[in-house]
Amino acid sequence: MLKIQIFSNMKKGNILNFLMKNIVYIKIMILFLFFKILISTIIIASFHAVPDEYKKINLWNRYFSGEKINYYIPFSNWDGQHYLLLSEKGYSEAMFQSKRFYPLFPNIIKITNFFIDNSYISSLIAVALFSFLFSIYFYKFASLYISAEACLICLFLIFSFPSAFYLNVIYSESLFLFLLFAFLYYYSINNNKSLYFAFFLPLSRPHGFFSLLAILLIFLYYIVSRKRFDMFFHARIVAVFIFSTVCFLTFYKLTTGSYMAWFNANKLGVFGTSVINIINPVHFFRYIFSPCDNFFSYNNGLVDKIFICIMLPASYFVFKSKNIIFIVFYAIFAYFPASMGYGGGYIRYSLLAFPFLCLSISNILNKRMIFYPLLLIFILVQSILAARFAINLWVG
To answer: Are 349 and 386 part of one and the same domain?
Structure first.
């Protein structure tokens, strides 16, 4: 009897020690699940609140035929349909305009679907996993610069950010943010594991190539400022990015017959983006001060301009942090999407820049008078945007 009691106490002690050692990750899991359930509920409720007749007209969904509507359908609107199509048909058979979407995410869905045999569920499992991994690696990266409490506050605001519902739908934002912050964490501690994540970044989104530019600028900064750094480590990272680019182009050549299929397909888009516009301030200011087409619009929408006019001036706080990683990545992720076209999709793109802003102003965010009102505003706006997305209305 005594042995059983001792064994029982040891088990309780081990469990308690495990919980105490991993309390932060348990908090992150609870935070993740809270927002996952909240936003998923809003998306499903919004979709099912709309009459079936409207869904048939408005919802672009290759599976919709009037049968009983599945709960996962509203998570697949807009880009989600392209990712599902690519995961099932491949790049050789998919419609040409789908080929502008980068190959990593649809191929992950394809691999997952091999075990599950449902593209929707496979993609939602992948998105949930990547969103959680992003939160873990964001915390690990952020904890190198700010306190544990400040890290959790930042995560709270990132998950409540107006466009954070994209971390719950069939889009590649969750995958990219996971790869980015896993890369940045290992990069910041000079760990060679960063090379693995560096390889996958350009295969996930155009921002992966922006990340290469960011690393080159940081590399240049270290050289010019004569700071001590591991030159060979940085050179290996750049080499991996270049190798990934070669693999990216080779993939398109093998699957579509053209190295530039992704580029040519992108020309069919409605956003009119051009890399040249990044260095053309005249184009940017002409766009900002031009009349808006509508509040929500593919191009020249008022809501995109509002986000741009918040995110770009906020660069002041990021530069004030004097952290070269925060500065370079925020400047590129916030400015490039704002300047390349006519603001189309900027609400979504701002999600990739916002974590660096959070890190830069973490000392301000821990004040209750700022944190709680901001949190409530963010959740309210995100709920509205998520509801629009669910019924296939343009968000941005």
So the answer is: no
